[in-house]
Each structure stands twice: as structure tokens, then as C-alpha cells.
């Protein structure tokens, strides 16, 4: 797949932007716009995932010895609840994806959510960095398009 | 003469468009496989972190069924293998479709050129 980057890489060809035609530049800009859109979408969904993990982690923080035996309302659907009692609060079952669930004790569960939050945050940083780089290139392209437009003989 | 060329051009354009659609669909399929591979790799890592006596459940519809950790690991590994195979297939398909697209673009350009020349000729004769 074609890649656009401002840093030189062995498998990529370096192109002097000012040698391209306006047509080529605008195609390039379009491609970058599309990529930036993808980044924006990814960031939004990552942010959602990050929030979910953080929420779960916070919920676990409120688990302590006193909570065992307490009354709770168990949601059966979005709007139906039945009363219940908390038993065995020493471990929880976590959805790890692809329909698999694992049982973990509290410290391990907290560790799980911490790890996940960290992982997602790292991915977000990576995407933010890439996005910054791409928008820099995009700005440069726009600048050159402007210069080229000004150089064109006035009709 | 011009009509003949025009028809050829239209034909080629239809081919080009259907090819483009197919390529788009294949890329979408690749994206899906990619995300499935990612999810399965994450699950695999998580299963590897569990102690040998760790409890694993699989959700089947509305119930959780207890599964052996070894079995779960095998299952995930099998799925990863399968997805990798599918990815390879899809990648090959994408490569061949891209090649076809290049061929279509080339012949379209040629036809367009011929068409323009024919039109110029027709204008001169008129």
C-alpha cells in the first residue's frame, strides 16, 4: 500500500513536492485527508475503549471486604432490575474478547484493566503522532498549491 | 468509427468500475480480517498470562460454559492460523485486482486518446 511520510524510509522514494503539478498535489492532499479522517475515527473509538477500561477499573476500586453480602439490583435488561445479594466478591469474571471470559481475583483484575488502559493510551499516542506528521505534510502541500496558483499567469 | 470507439470506451469503463468495486470490497474484507486477527492475538496473550489452573469460560448465546484453558488456547491458535491463511488469500486477490486496475486504466487512456483523435478528424472533415 502507498504510504506518505515526511521521514525518509528505505523502501520509499523521496519526492520534491515543488516538482509536482497542481493536479498531482491535490490528489495527494485528498489521500492525506482520507488518512487523517481514518485517524480521527480510530482516535474516537480508542477513546471509548479507554473510558470503558477506566470505568471498570474504578468500579473494582470500590470493591472491598465490606461489600460482600450487600444488596444490589441486577439488570436483566436495559430497564428491568431484580434484587440480589453480592456473594464471593474475591474474584470477578472478565470478558477478554472473542467470546472468552476468564476468572480473576481482584488484584489480577485491576492489573488487567490497568494494562488495557495503558495499551490503549499508547496506541492513541502513536496515532496522534502519525496524525500530526501527516497534517504537517498536508499543510506543506496546501502551501505549495497556493504558491503554484499565484505563479500561474492571471487570466 | 467514432461510435465504435465510444462503445469500446464505455465497455472498458464498465469493466473498470466493476473492478474498482470488487477491489473496494476485498479491501473491506481485509480490514475485517485484520481486526479479527488483532482481537484473537490479544485474547491469546491474555490466556497465556493465566496460571495453568485459571478458570476460562466461553459464552454460548446467553450462558457461560466452563472451558479448559488448554482447549481455549488451542482454539484461539487455530483461529489465528485460519485468519492468517485467509489474510494471505485476500492479499493475493488484492494484488491481482490492482494489477487488473492498472491494465484497465492504461487501455482507457489509450481509448480516450484514440477517441479524441477521431473527433478531431471528424471535425476537420465536417
UniProtKB/TrEMBL annotation, chain A:
Segments crossing the lipid bilayer: none
Pfam families linked to this entry: Prefoldin
Superkingdom of the organism of origin: Eukaryota
Native source species: Hypothenemus hampei
Family, as annotated: Belongs to the prefoldin subunit alpha family.
Protein name, as recorded: Prefoldin subunit 5
Signal peptide positions on this chain: none
PANTHER family cross-referenced by the UniProt entry: PREFOLDIN SUBUNIT 5
Keywords: Chaperone, Coiled coil
Coiled-coil ranges (or none): 22-66
TrEMBL record, chain B:
Pfam family, one: Prefoldin_2
Keyword tags: Chaperone, Coiled coil
CDD domains found in the cross-reference section: Prefoldin_6
Membrane-spanning intervals of the chain: none
Coiled-coil regions listed: 80-121
InterPro entries attached to this UniProt entry: PFD_beta-like (IPR002777), Prefoldin (IPR009053)
Subunit text: Heterohexamer of two PFD-alpha type and four PFD-beta type subunits.
PANTHER family: PREFOLDIN SUBUNIT 6
Family: Belongs to the prefoldin subunit beta family.
Protein name: Probable prefoldin subunit 6
